[in-house]
Amino acid sequence: MRLSGELPLRGPRGEYFLYLFILLVLVLALVRWPRLAAVVLALAAFELAWGAGLFALYRAGFASASLMPPGRFEPQRFQWHPLLQAVPIPSLKLTSSTGLAIEHTREGTRGRDPAGSLEGRTIVATFGGSTTYDIGAGAGDTWPDRLAEALGDRYFVVNHGVPGYTTAEHLIQTAFYQDKFGKPRCAIYYVGWNDLRNAHIANLDPAYADFHLPSQIDSQKVRRVGGSHVTFSPLLTLLMRFASAHLDTARYFTDPYGKPPVSGDDPALDAIYQRNIRAISAINRQRGVSTIWVGQLLNRERLGGEGRYGWLPLVRDRDLWPMQQDLNALLERTARELGDVYVGVSAQFFTGADFVDQGHFSKQGARRFADDLAPIVRDNCR
């Protein structure tokens, strides 16, 4: 692992192997007391098996997750919120474990604070999940950044995107937190993929509160104890996760992982998605804010076969893009009924090079996406 660059000495994974080394040294120091040494040796064996052993099985495709800590420490970007579960930490500047520069404004949105007064400038609000927050792009390279660049100094674009957010969270954002940096002239919603995460969950909660909303606490690592946190000790990690699962008030009402995948459309999800769209549109219309809906793009080159890459527990990779197209069509029909603007960016002009994974833009893809949006935004956000 050290030779392949997977074991930086300074970092969580290095701490794990240092911990194992200390346990083995302690075993040797206790050799005159065999029973005590055996206890420490058993602990070392457990930590080795559940850490390095499970990691090896995970890399070989025989385990769904690993308890070995990551190679590099990922700085905390989000904090807990009672309504939205996780929100960006305001006034944050950091470098991610992958080397990307991340900045948050004083209002807790991704991007830089405005230089000078916003008086006389048109505010454009963008909403979405990780594809709007743009986790594959550094500061200045997200598509909202590139959109602001294309629109010019007369506009100020606010990036309200947060990884994992669905239309349920966007409804809350629109109702209560839309006016960061002032009332927007128009609001852009790039949505669909995260809502599909809830597809085919039985008895789906109308606000996604049975699975998705609690999962955000762990996805963004804002749970105080346990959850998705991985410590230097797999045993400690398991104990913390047990405590969070059985003692914490924020718990899952259902866990769809491990269940067989389901193909086809989900009418219950479609109804919730359409209801959220209508509610968001109504709030904006009452406030005099123009609403622009944008259908989600995905990396079709990475979505094939019978496997599931993990974010959507009950949807096969090969089924995701057809389902996303159906959701985009529903979004377009609903937007036109409401008198809103719908933008269907053509997927055929986006290749694998425009994404860093299944659906997050690369630097090149973010610029291309923003350039496609800019004329429409300029025409509807005067």
Distinctive features:
382 residues, 40% helix, 3 domains, five-stranded parallel sheet, two-stranded antiparallel ribbon, alpha/beta, Rossmann fold, 9 strands
What's the rounded overall pLDDT mean? Answer: 93
Distance from N terminus to C terminus (CA atoms, Å) equals: 55 Å
Shape: globular
What structural class results from the helix and strand content? alpha/beta
Q: Which fold name corresponds to the CATH topology of the largest domain?
A: Rossmann fold
Total separate domains: 3
Beta-strand portion reads 5-15%
Strand order of the largest sheet: 6-5-7-8-9
**Strands, total number:** 9
Class of the largest domain, according to the CATH hierarchy? Answer: Alpha Beta
Number of helices: 11
Low-confidence stretches: none
What's the Cα radius of gyration? 23 Å
CATH architectural grouping of the largest domain: 3-Layer(aba) Sandwich
The main sheet comes to: 5 strands, parallel
